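Supplementary Text 2. Reproducibility record for the structural model of the 118-residue chain.

All settings were left at their defaults, and a single model was retained for analysis rather than an ensemble. We include the record here because the model underlies the residue-level annotations in Supplementary Table 4.
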Amino acid sequence: MPDTDITIVHRSDESGTTKLFTTFLAAYSPEWEKGPGVDKTVTIKVGLSKTFHEQAPELVAVLEKVNLPIDLLNQNLGRMAKERIESPKLAKIFLKEHPEVWHAWVSEDAAKKIDAAL
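Retained model, structure tokens:
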């Protein structure tokens, strides 16, 4: 890894898939079982370079808020495979169809601009 400062951001996600995965990790690793442990909710930390954090604080703020309901995520991944939709196109469809999810991630002004662009 490059010798740069890293800023940690996090988000949490609750799902049966997460519980299954954390159960596997706990069975494999006693350290994992002690903490973070087995649960449907696990905090996921993402490292960002100091430069990224300084140059795009608004994007960092959005990333900290992103939370996709697991059922909705799975439905869209299935749709992507079944209908052979490319990622950028599915992302645009998702934004059009589910503003109730992503509006919470951005400011009201940003949401209006994104809605208008869609």
